[in-house]
Amino acid sequence: LKSHISNLQSSNLLNKAYCNSLRFQLAFKEEKKAAGKGKGKLMGDGMPKLLSGDDFYEHVVEFTKWQK
Questions:
Q1: What is the pLDDT along the chain (68 residues), one digit of tens a residue?
Q2: DSSP state of 38
Q3: What whole-number distance in Å separates Cα of residue 28 and Cα of residue 22?
Q4: Which of 18, 34, 50, 67 is 20–30 Å from 3 (CA)?
Q5: How does DSSP classify residue 52?
Q6: Residue 19: CB atoms within 10 Å
Q7: CA 41 – CA 48 distance, rounded (Å)
Q8: Helix H segments across the chain?
Q9: Which DSSP symbol is given to 41?
Q10: Predicted local distance difference test score (pLDDT) of residue 53
């Protein structure tokens, strides 16, 4: 009985360590995904834009400032 309890406790410790490892990996992946959004795309919504309009020019200027 004592050896069975010891085995259960050790497997519980290993499971906790594995779950913590997975939790940190998932948190890192989610942070990386959230940080990557909005970078490198001027118009990321997929809709057509009028490229000669004043609003687009202002958006380009803001985007280039943001990139620097």
A1: 889 999 999 999 999 999 999 999 999 998 888 776 555 666 666 676 667 778 778 888 888 887 77
A2: T
A3: 10
A4: 18
A5: T
A6: 10
A7: 14
A8: 2-36, 54-67
A9: -
A10: 74
**Amino acid found at 13:** L
Question: In whole angstroms, what separates CA 68 from the centre of its chain?
Answer: 22
- Owner of token pair 């118009």: 43
Tokens linked to 45 = 């919504």
Q: Which two tokens stand for residue 29?
A: 């992946």
The amino acid at residue 12 is N
**19: helix, coil or strand?**
helix
User: Token digits for 55?
Assistant: 């609003």
Query: What are the Cα distances from residue 26, in Å, to 23, 30, 31, 39?
Result: 5, 6, 9, 21
What CA–CA distance (Å, rounded) separates 7 from 44? 53
CB 63 within 8 A of CB 43: no
SS3 (DSSP) at 45? coil
